Structures are given as structure tokens and as C-alpha cells.
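Translate structure to sequence.
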């Protein structure tokens, strides 16, 4: 029997899909791609934007068209969001964001009964769904989902309704999973969640407590955090950042807007001065910290003045990369009822931010020209290898180097934001 897992969206989905792969492998399924005629195809969907919904629908249609006899399983945020109108003849098993850990059981039930399965759970009443992975197929960096859900309810965002409220993996279970991954050869672990920095809310532990514990694992060289809110870069986290060199020199901190007026409409929990002050505080002791961010352009009522203020503040903060999203209406969110910005203006603003992002990225990379950095090799071809520094610079080296090994690499050139280096001798 063969199974194909197709994943859209965030790192949490990537982790969950990896768990699903392991469960199918334990049940003697071969993991294949779509063209190799899988008996079961699992599509783990995303709904964060209209484009995500569209990609999810296209993936479902493509899976069925490519393999008409494959059992089609659809799960995730788009399934949760559109559970009342996504039901059609193409889908055999439809679930939402809960019980992904039971997909193999649903497949067995479907094979035995040949009856479609359609099951959802009230996401406001669920506990953390424990999953444990032992390997991350073909990767040197292992994602570990430690948290799920969100309580922020930003006015543009539907994810709290799709994922439920904040809940966390028990710290002992998280530690044992990470310990197992490290013992299996992973030197870098990425802590991830829907709202990772809220880990431990309502419990007697928090994110820093987990970081301290896993830092004691000798073979673990890098601890990376997938994303963290500026409000969670509190004194306890900052003090740990000062003394713990295993925490990577890269933080992805979503800003969403550089205008205080828009931030308030978004129901974000900070203002620009607070954001800048925390970034500057960290740069005092980690001057090379790589800050990347998410930004929404064309949020309802965003004026040109708001947009220019955003550009001004993005430059002042000095992000190295800005992941930009034109505002996308999500039904039943407060922002969906506000005065909308014209799509053409959204596209123009997104293009300007992309240009700024490229400029800031190039400026950051050039700080490391002729410097020697530790690079963990993640891909190797016949003529070259690719890896990342701890501050998340992707480096191309013109040698075939050993996979999952650290090398001292001297940065020799940056062309069109492609960073190249050579082994330091």
C-alpha cells in the first residue's frame, strides 16, 4: 500500500503531516509522491488567506484527477473553515483540525465499510492533541509542535476559530520528544506552534523553562523558534537570550503594520514604540540578531499616510526580510465589515514592500561579507552544498560537503541575495 501526504500552510501543519507519515509507515505504507499512484492521499489544508483556500481546493482536485482510485483524506484549517460546503464526491474522509492523529484509523474504517467519513470536533473544547515524531524525513532541522491555538483574536484573523484556544504540550513530553530527536541525529530543533510564545499559558511552565531544559542536551547545538510575538519577548526570555548561545541568532517577530492607528484596528497588543524598544534592547547584546517579520498591506481603511509610516518604521527597525501579504477578507471577522482598500492599491503596496525587503535583505547579508560563520549542511549535490547559519542565512558552497555536519564557511559574495561561501582553511 502507498500513501501520499500533501501539506499546505504553516510549520505546525508540516509537523502534523510528518506525524501522519510516521503512522502510515508504521502500518507498512510506502510514502510516495502524487505521480506514483498512492492508494491513500492526505491533504493537510490551510485557510489563512483566500489564496490558501484556493490552493487547498486545487490540491484536492489535482489529487483526485491524478489518481481517481485513491482514497482522498482532507484535514486542516480549510476543512475546518469550509466544512459545510467542502463536502463533495472527491473527498472520502473529511475531518478538521482535531483527530489528525487518528487518520490511519479512519482510513482502516473506510476500507472496511466503504462509507464516507465526515467528522468534526468543537475546537473550543479540545485539549492538546499529543503527537510524537522520531524523524523528519530528509531534513536536518526538526520541527516540534509544542503549542496549539490562539487567544489573540486579531481583527483580520480566522485562525483562533479554526484552531481553538491556547493549549500546550506537557513540558516532560516535549522534552522527551526533543531528546529522542537529538539522539536520532538532529542537531537543530525548531519549536513551533500557532502562537509559540504563549507556550505554557495556564500551566506551571513556560517557553523559557523548556528552552533551559533542552539546552542541557549536549548533542543539541541549535534551538530555533519558528515565530514569536513582540509581547512575548519579556524580561525572562531576554535574560535567557543573553546567556544561552544555543538559541539561534534569528527571531521571526510579526509586526503586521507600522502604523499605530492600523495596529489598534487590528487588535494587536502593542504600539510601534514598544516594538522598536524591545528590538533595540536585544540588539544591544546581540548586534547580529536577524529579525524577520510578517506584514499585512491594504488592511481596511489603510491610507497612504499609514503605509508611508509603515515603510518608515520598517526601515528604522531594520528587518532583514519582510513576508508580505495583501489583506484578505476572512468571513465573520471584525475586519471583514470595515471599509476595504482597493485590490490594485494592495498589489502596488505589496510590490513596494517586496522591493524594500530585498533591499534590507541585501544590506543585512553584506554585514557578513568576508566573515566566517558556522553552517549546518542541509543539502548536497555533486558540485555544491547548501546550509544555514544560526542567523538563518542560506549559504551555497561550491563543494560536496557532508550532510548534517557543521563547517566553518567564509562568506565570499552576495549576488541578487544569493550568498556564497568557501570552506575556511
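Result:
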Amino acid at each position: 500500500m502507498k500513501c501520499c501526504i500533501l501539506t499546505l500552510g504553516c510549520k505546525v501543519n508540516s509537523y502534523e503531516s510528518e506525524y501522519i507519515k510516521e503512522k502510515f509507515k508504521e502500518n507498512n505504507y510506502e510514502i510516495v509522491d502524487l505521480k506514483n499512484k498512492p492508494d491513500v492521499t492526505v491533504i493537510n489544508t490551510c485557510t489563512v488567506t483566500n489564496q490558501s483556500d484556493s490552493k487547498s481546493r486545487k490540491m484536492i482536485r489535482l489529487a483526485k484527477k491524478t489518481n481517481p482510485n485513491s482514497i482522498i483524506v482532507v484535514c486542516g484549517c480549510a476543512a475546518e473553515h469550509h466544512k459545510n460546503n467542502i463536502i463533495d464526491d472527491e473527498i472520502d474522509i473529511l475531518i478538521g483540525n482535531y483527530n489528525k492523529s487518528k487518520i490511519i484509523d479512519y482510513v482502516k474504517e473506510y476500507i472496511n465499510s466503504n462509507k464516507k467519513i465526515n467528522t468534526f470536533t468543537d475546537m473550543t473544547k479540545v485539549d492538546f492533541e499529543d503527537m510524537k515524531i522520531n524523524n523528519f524525513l530528509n531534513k536536518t532541522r526538526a520541527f516540534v509542535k509544542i503549542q496549539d491555538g490562539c487567544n489573540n483574536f486579531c481583527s483580520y484573523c480566522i485562525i483562533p476559530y479554526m484552531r481553538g484556544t491556547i493549549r500546550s504540550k506537557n513540558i516532560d513530553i516535549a522534552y522527551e520528544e526533543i531528546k529522542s530527536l537529538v539522539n536520532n541525529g538532529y542537531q537543530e530543533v525548531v519549536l513551533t506552534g500557532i502562537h509559540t510564545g504563549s507556550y505554557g499559558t495556564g500551566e506551571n511552565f513556560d517557553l523559557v523553562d523548556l528552552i533551559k531544559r533542552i539546552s542541557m542536551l549536549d548533542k543539541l547545538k541549535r534551538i530555533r523558534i519558528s515565530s514569536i510575538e513582540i509581547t512575548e519577548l519579556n524580561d525572562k526570555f531576554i535574560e535567557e537570550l543573553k546567556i544561552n548561545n544555543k538559541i539561534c541568532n534569528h527571531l521571526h517577530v510579526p509586526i503586521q503594520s507600522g502604523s499605530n492607528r492600523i495596529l489598534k484596528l487590528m487588535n494587536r497588543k502593542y504600539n510601534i514604540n514598544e516594538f522598536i524598544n524591545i528590538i533595540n534592547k536585544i540588539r544591544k547584546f546581540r548586534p547580529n540578531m536577524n529579525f524577520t517579520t510578517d506584514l499585512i498591506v491594504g488592511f481596511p481603511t489603510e491610507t497612504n499616510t499609514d503605509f508611508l509610516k509603515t515603510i518608515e518604521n520598517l526601515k528604522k527597525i531594520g528587518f532583514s526580510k519582510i513576508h508580505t501579504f495583501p489583506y484578505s477578507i476572512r468571513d465573520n471577522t471584525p475586519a471583514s465589515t470595515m471599509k476595504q482598500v482597493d485590490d490594485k492599491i494592495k498589489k502596488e503596496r505589496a510590490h513596494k514592500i517586496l522591493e524594500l525587503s530585498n533591499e534590507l535583505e541585501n544590506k543585512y547579508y553584506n554585514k557578513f561579507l568576508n566573515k566566517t560563520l558556522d553552517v549546518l549542511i542541509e543539502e548536497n549535490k555533486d558540485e555544491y552544498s547548501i546550509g544555514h547559519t544560526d542567523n538563518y542565512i542560506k549559504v551555497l558552497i561550491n563543494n560536496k560537503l557532508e550532510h548534517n555536519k557543521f563547517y566553518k564557511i567564509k562568506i565570499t559574495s552576495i549576488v541578487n541575495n544569493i550568498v556564497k561561501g568557501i570552506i575556511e582553511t
